[in-house]
Design goal:
- By secondary structure, the protein is an alpha+beta fold.
- The chain has a domain of about 140 residues.
- Helices cover about 35% and strands about 10% of the residues.
- It is built from eleven helices and 13 strands.
- The strands form four sheets. The protein has a seven-stranded antiparallel β-sheet, with helices on both faces. Strands 7-8 form a two-stranded antiparallel ribbon. A two-stranded antiparallel sheet has the order 10-11.
- Helix 5 packs antiparallel against helix 6 and helix 6 packs across helix 9.
- The radius of gyration is 25 Å and the shape is globular.
- About 40% of the residues are buried.
């Protein structure tokens, strides 16, 4: 066989292989598309969210209760709620109250019996008097995991993971298409039923105050009027009102709750945190899926040099914008809330050698003095896939550099400098990437 004939045969074989490879890729893409229509992305490989055993704080509590390592402190519903909060390191002072029927336990919720919510950077706890405790806690592998804790059982609490009911609301476009958390502003009637014909808003730090807190009780002062502390009628025009309450005594039976307040500062922090938490989860889930598919198609190739890397970089842009409070709504002359929450929040996070912290509040025009989110200290951030974390840290460093005014034009040089100093002294990942 001549060299020319051999080269011609090789070319034919190569084209044949390419046709087979192309057919295989099309087939894989079609199968993936069909699967995606039937199955949520988080339940596909490699995550297999619903089928994967969860780990973390709630499972530890359940095991320790069952073994007798820790006793259940208290017998009343309120004592059991406080036990859960303490075990999860969630401060009571983060309490906010929502009276719209927008929860798994809607039959128990109304303006006289609101649901209380509490949070830390890693966990969310909800409770309706007369009902169960709901918990969302970050799992290093799975992301947010949902639990229902009944106030009964052999150890005083019956803890069960939920992989279906909660995700009908907490796994939608409101949560970036992954298991997540959100704050929703609705227009409740006198029974707490949301008047959906009037609309609703998924609230983030970008949402104008005038559109926030429909269906929530709000204590503390706000320069801007808002939709909290009231019910609505479809026949009446909807306008935000200015209602500054210091306590909810006289409106509800405050004895059923750890505190008589629904703090306005806790609310704005929660709204920001939910947005960032969802973006971090989406970045992790979507990158893992993209990497899995790339490795399935070509195990020898570097997935981060292709689609998986592009997914990580695109996610980093969204995450950094949220971390740096891009397009944050103007608080006007400010907010005034309870000192208890602000003090507890400050204690959760580290300080630089000069005593500065990302948790330092401003509450005039904006929430924090230094506009970089405390969610950089969260478990969700810590457990980002390495390629995603590298992309986020890299873009964050670029955004905070003196020579860059494109990514975060709302930050001045002095604020950037202080943020860089805080991060360099308090965030180990800052030095690693």
């Amino acid at each position: 066989m001549s060299d020319e004939e051999d080269l011609g045969g090789s070319a034919l074989r190569k084209r044949s292989r390419l046709r087979r490879w192309g057919t295989a890729w099309i087939g894989l893409s079609m199968v993936t598309a069909v699967q995606a229509q039937r199955t949520d992305v988080w339940d596909l490989p490699p995550l297999r969210y619903s089928d994967t055993v969860a780990t973390g704080r709630v499972t530890e509590i359940a095991k320790r209760l069952e073994s007798g390592e820790i006793p259940l402190r208290g017998k009343s519903p309120l004592e059991k709620l406080r036990f859960v909060l303490e075990e999860l390191d969630v401060p009571e002072s983060s309490q906010v109250l929502v009276f719209s029927k927008t929860s798994k336990q809607i039959d128990r919720i109304d303006p006289q019996n609101p649901r209380c919510l509490f949070f830390s950077e890693n966990a969310y706890v909800g409770y309706v008097p007369g009902g169960a405790i709901e918990v969302i806690v970050h799992d290093a592998v799975l992301g947010p995991v949902f639990y229902l804790i009944e106030l009964e059982g052999p150890q005083g609490l019956a803890i069960q993971r939920d992989t279906s009911d909660c995700l009908s609301c907490h796994g939608t476009t409101r949560t970036e298409g992954v298991p997540g958390v959100f704050v929703r502003s609705v227009f409740p009637d006198a029974r707490g039923q949301a008047l959906l014909a009037l609309g609703s808003v998924t609230v983030t730090h970008e949402t104008p105050i005038e559109e926030r807190w429909g269906g929530y009780y709000v204590t503390g002062g706000s320069f801007h009027p808002h939709l909290g502390n009231r019910t609505f009628d479809e026949s009446e025009p909807v306008r935000p009102t200015k209602q500054d309450l210091t306590t909810l005594e006289g409106r509800i039976n405050v004895g059923k709750y750890p505190r008589p307040t629904s703090d306005v500062v806790a609310l704005v922090v929660l709204e920001h945190q939910c947005r960032v938490h969802n973006l971090l989860t989406a970045a992790s889930v979507n990158y893992q899926r993209a990497r899995f598919l790339a490795e399935l198609v070509n195990p020898q190739a570097d997935p981060d040099a292709g689609q998986a890397g592009r997914v990580a970089d695109a996610a980093a842009e969204k995450v950094v914008d949220a971390l740096l409070f891009k397009n944050e709504a103007d608080l006007g002359e400010g907010l005034e809330g309870e000192r208890a929450f602000q003090d507890d929040y400050l204690l959760q996070f580290p300080k630089s050698s000069s005593g500065r912290s990302l948790a330092d509040f401003k509450l005039y025009r904006r929430i924090f003095k230094y506009r970089c989110s405390c969610m950089v200290y969260s478990s969700a951030f810590e457990h980002l896939p390495s390629r995603v974390k590298r992309a986020v840290i890299g873009r964050l460093g670029e955004a905070l550099s003196d020579g860059n005014e494109d990514i975060a034009p709302h930050l001045g040089r002095s604020e950037k400098k202080r943020i860089r100093k805080i991060l360099s002294e308090t965030l180990p990942a800052w030095k690693l990437y």
